[in-house]
Records
---
Amino acid sequence: MRNARRLRLRFDASTGSFKLTCPARMSRKAALAWALDQREWVQRQLDSIVPPEPIAPGVLIPVQGRDTTIVWDESFRRTPQLALGELRCGGPETGLQRRVESFLKTMALQTMSAEVAEFAKAAEVSASAVSIGDPATRWGSCSSQGRIRLSWRLILAPPEVRRYVVAHEVAHLKHLNHGPQFKALEARLVGPGVAEAKAVLRRVGPRLRRVGRGR
Ligand SMILES: [Zn+2]
């Protein structure tokens, strides 16, 4: 592991844990004393924690920002089906969470690949690859080689929030920074509502990260 250059306290909302890193030359006692001083910040993080939400029969999960009930019946089709606020799943109850997640991941990749293409066309750029993952802190990233990676959990978020993140990463295909030109392109792609989408993502983000956990 690289030697930390400065004291740092990080919080992982998906696991509810804190991580303190400190330079090797600093005493453990001094580092802990510093961490204790962050009590207020620590408490704020703990307050923001939402309980884990395992995917199980009868529970509500957000899908495209809409509360959706997981309805399980062994006789239903094994591949989940989404309709009228329900996600119907058949097959054995064991593996239900995995099947629902893989259904949502497929939906996320299809939806966001189409959106990347749509925004890329508008920005007159092209992405070399689009993939999904489950990063702990970021919603999306764009490499200097033009590879866009997005959190599958964005399919749980309201569509305007997901589209904002996709447009943001597409804008990075042209500008790998957050400068004025980047901001102008982002605003052109998203249209009005960038600030609103950011605020909603901040508010619902912690919950989205808890869906499918705790089992
Ligand atoms: Zn960015």
Note: Residues 168, 172, 178 surround zinc ion (CB under 6 Å).
---
Amino acid sequence: MIASVCGELRRHPWTALCVGLLTSIAAQSASAAGCPGHPDAIGTSRTIVVDPRAHPIIGTMQYAKTLPLADREVVLTFDDGPLPKYSDQILDILAAHCAKATFFLVGRQANDNPEGVRKVRDAGHTVATHTQNHPAGMHRLPLDRSKQEIEQGIASVTAALADGTAPAPFLRIPGLRATDGIEEFAASKGLQVWSADFPADDWRNVSAARVYELAIKRLEAKGKGILLLHDIQPRAVAALPGILQELKVRGYRIVHVVPATPDRPATPTEPQQWLLHPPSETVAISRWPKIPKFAVAGPPALPVPALSDLDWRTSGLGVRAPRRGRGVLLRSVAPWPRQTTLMPTGTLAALPVPAASLFKIPESARMTLLASSANRAATAQARSTEVSAAKLAGKPRRNGRAVATEPPASAGPAAQAPESAGVAAPKPAAQTKRNGRSVRVAGKR
Ligand SMILES: [Zn+2]
């Protein structure tokens, strides 16, 4: 029916749409065909083989890279099992949909329920690990403790498998709280640290309907990716059938992930396939690459100070830094202005224009100068009066003791002081008074 419709539309631009539709239907038919007795099952569309050493960290909740999925491909993951009460139900639901998933098992849970580990393996799912004791604050643990948690978790699951095989070298850190040290350790062990692309909050106190809603909504927002669920949570058990049915209705496909082995080479991929949204002409890069850690070689060097650090106009002059240690006060900046204007090469050097404030006279000096000038003014006035009086009296100026330019060579200190004071030094008040007497005397003459 659809083929005939597409045949009618062969000459139309919708041809590509018809081809896509047929391909999708064919894939779903293949999935259903691979799930006998469950015609509505979503199935597992394909299996990809990944090399942990080539891609040691994945999952866009934390990292730039994620699994090399095509649009509308989903990878199911379940954490914290096995816990028979709920994990067995999850396995039954997945079996009913022929959907393959990856289980990140806790070592302590594996010790308590080794049969549950084997059930996961025997159902064809990927068995991975999730530390030994699931420490909540893994990022706060000493690195040695974290290493111990990871290695013990692998050992416990390996023991539970009981067939001499090891779990997949896929590791999920509890709470996704990986540190650089943990990631480096995992990489050194050939482990691939799995974050996720979207959770469904099934570990929170929310309804199963809310888990379903979040799973679908967040998947639609990214278009593909790794879904994080917990097989120890009853709300995950309740939500999972609806999630799988809705995924099929919306045209999503389940992808199973297994690790590369010497006998099973990794699925060939291009580097950009490991990005959630590979850059293209129409899709901008949404995330910058993680900044690599540089090993500094050579002698240590002090950082080059910024020019703004040297600009006195922007610094708080005279502001004292907080007291550090005992008895030592440190200034955050030198208390003197530092002119840092750099002259361009080849230009004439020019001194900065001095600020008007530089010419201001401090208040105390101003008082002294004012007193001096007042004395000088009084002396000049007295001398002028004396000379005028002398003129009026018909006496020549040379006879006046107040003539500054002609001090008598033989005059004693008492007689000399007024003249010299009139030229150079401020006069004492007593001498001014004597001049006053002299003026009065001269005036009487
Ligand atoms: Zn967990």
Note: The chain has twelve helices and ten strands.
---
Amino acid sequence: MYVNFQTMARKFSLVAFIVVFSWLSAFALRRERLIDTWRPTHYNVSLTLNEQLTEITSAQADLDIVAVKNLSLVDMDFGEMTTDSVSLNNSPVTFLHRNGKLEITLPNPVGPGTKLHVTVTYHGKPRDGLILSADKDGKPSVVGDNWPDRVHHWIPSLDHPSAKATVTFNVTAPARDLVVANGQLNKVQTSDSGTKTWTYTETVPIPPYCMIIGVGDFAKLEPSGPMLTPLSYYVPHSDGSYALKGFAPADPVLRLLTQLVGPYPYEKLAMIIGATRFGGMENSSAIVFTTTLFNPKPDARLSTAFGIPTNVEDVVAHEIAHQWFGDSVTESTWSDLWLSEGFATYFAGLFILKYEGDDAFQSYMQRAAETAFTYEKKNRIPIHDRETEDLFKLLNGNNYQKGAWVLHMLRSRLGDDTFYRGIREYYKKHKDSTASTEDLHSALEKASGQSLQQFFSRWVYDAGHPQYDVSWKWLPKEGRVQVSMNQVQPGKAFLDPVPIVVTTSLGKRKFLITPEGKLAKQMFPLNERPAGIAIDPENTILKEVTVR
Ligand SMILES: [Zn+2]
């Protein structure tokens, strides 16, 4: 998902922000829900909404699940809606619904590999996850917004990103409204009572936080011309005239990611404007963007390629990149979240590089560096973070911006050919499934034939960034320049080779400092007096530098 870190920084002192932020932080304590007893393989969710879209009048979730080991209890995550009945393989069973869990005791324990069918009927108004509220035009609307583990407020589930499954939604809503959901639209049935039932099926396993529906009086727009995948935009009517322009980067982003990574993983892509806590939320094949996305911003910087505010271009690219990274290749654990957010941030940057040019890309990465440093000043923790308890606090400068920089450094070090070959292999091996940091590590080692042990251990599993304190001395009689580079950051040294460029009246000379510890002293041949020394002028390393 997309968080506006610039806006967050600017508004930090505002009371309104603090209130919103503490509200964001109030839920979701860190818990790594293990998939060690059972796992879902398919959800078939039927929801009937009332006329004003303020309540789910009846719901039924049919889950195909499989026992992972000997199983006597199915413990589903389920919030506060009222459970009416539970059956197992079509026979009623007793259940206990309390404290966010729906516990179903099996009449007879089963062994690993046994497939079971659980049916839960329920009703009510979800406390969270499915947002029933007015859209920006004041019309009734319903939109799913589940990250990080809020889907269980409206669907009994195993609410962890790695518990991926396919899903079918059957949504019965007033005939005036449109319904969108993950996957392909199978059918729309009209009833005599003034409702329509919309059936969508996502045939590719997706993480539960990406399972959504959107219901409301949307304007539906479809861009013309051949598109990489069927594209449609569901927006409040007041955004109808701008949506085709505002979402214009969508097809180019889909094409770039297809070219760099692999085929688009889903049946279609819907872009929705509706209720989400985030700037954008990457639900598989049905992305939701914040209701203010297209509000006029008179002082906005405009994209040269699309003529829209650059922040709109950025969030569209970010959420679409997530379809590959996060949705298709899903983080195995919360500690691996950067495989979702760092990738989406970096691939949005690569889109900006292609469409807005190198200067725009450089400033995008520079802003990312500043956000990462700001976060690090208050939190000396690794990207691979096992500590942070509040999952919302994982939406931070480590997982987004520093994660993007890790990819940028790997691309700079390995070169485009090797980097993208490694990324494509990683994607191919883990698509429609999950991946860990070690999966990425090994894919890039395999592609490059070099050890990246030191790199991953220092950059991903340890905290901080290099702060180089550099001094130099020209020794004219010896025809050499001596460069001393001291790393003054707390913690261990970074052993990344550091390019330096020495400028003389004869031009520029490039050298490489190869630290073996915190202090590196190296001599380079140089017969001309240096006019200046630049440390990593092409910004291939996330760093701070002082040259004396
Ligand atoms: Zn994101």
Note: Confidence is low (pLDDT under 50) at residues 12-29.
